[in-house]
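Hi support team,

I submitted a single chain yesterday and got back a structure, but I'm not sure I'm reading the token output correctly. Could someone confirm the output below corresponds to the sequence I sent? I've pasted both exactly as they appear in my results page.

Thanks,
R.
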Amino acid sequence: MANALHAEGVVPGERVCFLDKSSDAAFEVMIGSGKAGGVFTPVNWRLAPPEIAYVVNDARASVLVIGEEYAETVESIRGDLPDVEKVVCLERDYASWRDAADDADPRLDTPEQETAWQLYSSGTTGHPKGVELTHHNLITGMSGGVQGFGGFQTGEVALISAPFYHIGGAGYALACLFGGLSLVVTREFVPGEILKLIGEQRVQYSFWVPAMMLFLLQHPDCARTDFSSLEAILYGASPIPEELLKQAMDTFDCEFIQAYGLTETTGALTLLAGREHVVGSPRLRSCGKPVFGMEVRVVDGEGRTCQTREVGEIQARGALVMKGYWARPEATSEAIDDEGWFSSGDAGFFDEDGFLYIHDRVKDMIVSGGENVYPAEVESVLFAHPAIADVAVIGVPSDQWGEEVKAVVVRSPDAELSDQDVLDYCEGRLAGYKRPRSVDFVDELPRNPTGKILKRELREKYWEGESRRVH
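Hi R., thanks for writing in. Yes, this is the structure output for that exact sequence:
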């Protein structure tokens, strides 16, 4: 693979784009790109054609490897990809193209601080940014990932079902490969298929975002699935309601490990170990302690370190922090200060024992009557209601309070639930200023490809006519 890329003129530092769902070939392109000194750049296959063109052009890739499923899409934008000189289709000419190359190891001396992967941010606002992760970032992160699981035994079985364009998918997959596991790779996350594979392949490890766990638990085959092979589930990428976590722990009956991190921190920044997952313990709401080699702190709006249990913005410094945003020096400088501290945009606090607790994204915080309300906290309470299948909490304009709390709810199948039922449920469970003042019901919540609820999209109709999105 490395030599095939060299034959196409790929030089060290050049981006190699990959547009397809997960497969064994994705690993070949990933590792071959690194061996060639190139940069593996997976493209979100859920994007619209113009968005795909934006990412490929932003990366300035000359080689684009695609799946047959996306051949028509790429053909429709081919004229808009001036830098792409070679398109290789996995089902058509990939094998012959790869195998025609020399099989001698090129043995390039690639410095560890050079970029290995370029993953694009979700892009919920504006264009996505290319996050540059170095060889050193990846080697450090993968070693830590294996240690976080307590070590792997060669030949144990891991399920790979998260997309490679997401750090939770690509990072977890590489850590499992690094640890010597046998990998069961699905093209995408289909709940019924996942449940079937767990039993058939005797899966021992997997990574799921909270939305994936929710979909598995709601699937009719869940009650009939044999989960006895499961050893540990790694989960993260978005806040998880405590009730959902309890349901998952009871159903899957294995060790649970929570990872908190971002693409910009090569994935896991903190880990909550399995031994801390005790029903009734307040630590079940924590995301754990910083991983080895990372410093994590919480700061206020003036940049001062917060006291214990004081909420502020989470910052991180260390071997896992990205090199920067590709071709965006100003954005990089805004995200990483002169001392190397990366600002996450997440709000949280530390407890007396050094455990970190996430409240929410700083930008999603609701200010109502001068009080800060973090939607994830309210969502966690509401999710425990048996008639609520899914929920999102947002801030909407209020002439009296500036902003007020609104709950957007998906009812459980066949459940009867009124807005007053939801409001009454919050009595005694949440402080008055945190309780929703209104409730809307929807069939489903908008989510991005990694399962995160698109709060900006939900808020839009309520803020029409407002000059800015604060009130």
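A quick pointer for reading it: The two ends are 54 Å apart (CA to CA). Let us know if anything else looks off.

Best,
Support desk
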